[in-house]
Design a protein that fits this description.
- The protein is built from 15 helices and 20 strands.
- It is an alpha+beta fold.
- The longest helix has 16 residues.
- It starts with a strand and ends with a helix.
- About 50% of the residues are buried.
Length: about 450
């Protein structure tokens, strides 16, 4: 096991990694930007390392500085959290070249699965269902041919990106040329890579993702999560297990996901869209997911601990049952510093910030009362995870937890969460990726 882990992230995920390391008896060094100097996880870590500046490029995206600090503070491993450099293959290689262990998959997996067209081809070759789509598109002629083959509407998507950034829906052939130019420009700006491709557009799909864990020799599935409640393609409410599905069919897709990632050596998530009774591959995230907590709540598996132990060379047979099972249900609601209607970030000082302490409610938070919420980073304040013997109980506990979370000084999306969690279609399980917009 490692002696000391450098936590190269901030807020909620940094606090989560510190807690997992503490459980394992591993010391931690928490990096922090100046604006994050009051973050609660800094007091919980063994030591801290300052990243001078406020912008991401100067702090949590400054790979050379992170590695320098990790080495200078006596760390033997680095945990990237999620976001920032977590899925950057070049950074993972630089970490290894510096004599540190990158707590994540081998960089070759990050490269292979981070490119969307390459990952589509790899998953299809492995027998995983993939929706209609194209390879990288070089010109409008190739784009037009692909769109005719796939059928309108279609989605233009960046090959090097994810998270819904840079996606453009195209309904008719005359729109293709302008959409192509716009999509390439957006992809270049967001990801430094202007390659784009097409996928078929699906009406009211469900977003279902499958948790996969591998140690390099064995790869297993750890059930699925429902992530259909989204705004602007960003997840807001997640739950596990996914309600209303035939469990045998979900088990089949989970097995296909694990098989497709044979030889994988960390946590990974295979994301799919389900429409018209069929699953279709979306992307693979080669990192810890924001919503990992709902899986932990129903399986009892500490995914962050498992991720660290795999990086330290341990085997799954010493950590997981051969086929993890679900008990009960869990629902997660993300509380953002943003207003509930326009969904624009809100900044200011947290004059009041008092997470509830309730039976069956888990709070993952990276902030404390008096701390400033700035425009420089993601506005996620906390995750409220309700657990219950039934879905109804889990939804109810999450709703009560959201209502009981006392926050003042910034606007939050709690009204949206309360409306959604208490709505008839959500309670009935009639979920799809456009439902949240319908409830606004």
């Amino acid at each position: 096991m490692f002696d000391r882990v450098f936590v190269a992230n901030r807020a909620t995920v940094a606090r989560r990694v510190v807690r997992a390391c503490d459980k394992l008896g591993v010391e931690t060094v928490a990096a922090y930007a100046d604006i994050d100097s009051a973050s609660p996880h800094l007091a919980e870590a063994t030591a801290t390392a300052r990243l001078p500046g406020y912008l991401a490029a100067d702090t949590y995206l400054n790979g050379a500085r992170l590695i320098e600090l990790a080495r200078g503070t006596g760390c033997d491993a680095l945990h990237p959290g999620y976001g920032f450099l977590a899925e950057n293959a070049a950074f993972a290689r630089e970490v290894a070249e510096a004599g540190l262990r990158f707590i994540g998959p081998d960089p070759r997996w990050i490269e292979r699965l981070g490119d969307k067209t390459k990952s589509r081809a790899a998953m299809a070759e492995a027998g995983f269902p993939v929706n209609r789509g194209s390879d990288d598109l070089d010109d409008v002629e190739a784009l037009t041919d692909a769109a005719r083959r796939i059928g309108f509407p279609v989605l233009l998507k960046p090959a090097a990106g994810g998270g819904g950034i840079g996606m453009i829906r195209v309904d008719t052939e005359p729109e293709l040329a302008n959409a192509f130019a716009t999509a390439r420009a957006q992809a270049l700006h967001a990801f430094g890579d202007d390659r784009v491709y097409l996928e078929s557009w699906l009406a009211e799909p469900r977003h279902i993702e499958f948790q996969v864990v591998g140690d390099g020799d064995t790869t297993v599935g750890v059930l699925e999560r429902e992530c259909s409640m989204q705004r602007r393609h960003q997840k807001v409410i997640e739950e596990a297990p996914a309600p209303g599905f035939d469990r045998r069919r979900l088990a089949e897709i989970e097995a296909l996901a694990a098989n497709a990632l044979s030889g994988y050596d960390s946590l990974g998530t295979v994301e799919t869209l389900h429409a018209d009774g069929e699953f279709g591959f979306l992307e693979v995230n080669t990192r810890l997911q924001v919503e990992h907590g709902v899986t932990e709540e129903i399986t009892g598996v500490d995914l962050v601990e498992v991720q660290i132990r795999i990086a330290a060379g341990e085997k799954l047979s010493d950590m997981l049952p051969a086929a993890p099972q679900a008990t009960g249900h869990a629902v997660e609601a993300r509380i953002y510093a943003e207003d509930s209607r326009r969904m624009l970030p809100s900044t200011g000082r947290l004059a009041v910030y008092r997470p509830p302490e309730m039976t069956g409610v888990r709070i993952e938070s990276g902030y404390a009362e008096g701390q400033w919420v700035t425009p420089y980073f993601d506005p996620l304040l906390a995750k409220v995870i309700g657990r219950g013997a039934t879905r109804e109980q889990a939804v109810g506990r999450t709703l009560v937890g959201v209502k009981a979370f006392d926050i003042g000084g910034v606007e939050t999306n709690r009204a949206l969460l309360e409306t959604t969690l208490g709505s008839e279609p959500f309670i009935a399980g009639r979920l799809h990726t456009g439902l949240l917009a319908e409830l606004l």
